Amino acid sequence: MPGSGAGILVVEELESALERGATIYAEIIGGAVNCGGQRQGGTMTAPNPVGVERCIRAAVADAGIDPMEIDAINGHLTATFADPVEVRNWARALGRGPDKFPFINSTKSLVGHCLGAAGAIECAAVALQLKKGFLHPSMNCNDIHPSIEEFSDWIPRQCIEMEDLRVVAKAGFGFGDVNSCLIFRKYENFV
User: Fold this and answer.
1) Cα separation values, 124 from 6, 106, 170, Å
2) So what's the pLDDT on residue 38?
3) Confidence (pTM)
């Protein structure tokens, strides 16, 4: 379903934000961008799994974390044929099967697919979830694709209070087979 809107994040050095007394919603601790080149199953509208997995692994490496530290994924999950591919890409890239998979939700299920604004809106949603300690649900996913039914416990159908939410991976895979992944961490001022 198409959507519209905008999202804006102020991204700055931590020292600068602290100096001006800003409310810090989250830290971006790593990220990666690549292009699968429309090969190995990639098309103009769907990424190839090899490129996606490389992008996820590069973002995790850039963040300097273990894949097991990821508590949740803000994914695409638009109830299409691509959902099983997306979930399996994450599972392979993180080395985490259905027994230890992180939660995965979709902001698109709440606001629609906002095309060029999707990434910014979803990043704002991730920052809010980290700051407030919750995971929003993925709406209208009562009938999970049969090939990923084993992951269904990790797809929230209602809001989950999660005070211990610390690390969220934000995915942006798709048009033109261009991939991006950011790793967000809850900001905790231990000073």
Assistant:
1) 10, 13, 10
2) 60
3) 0.93
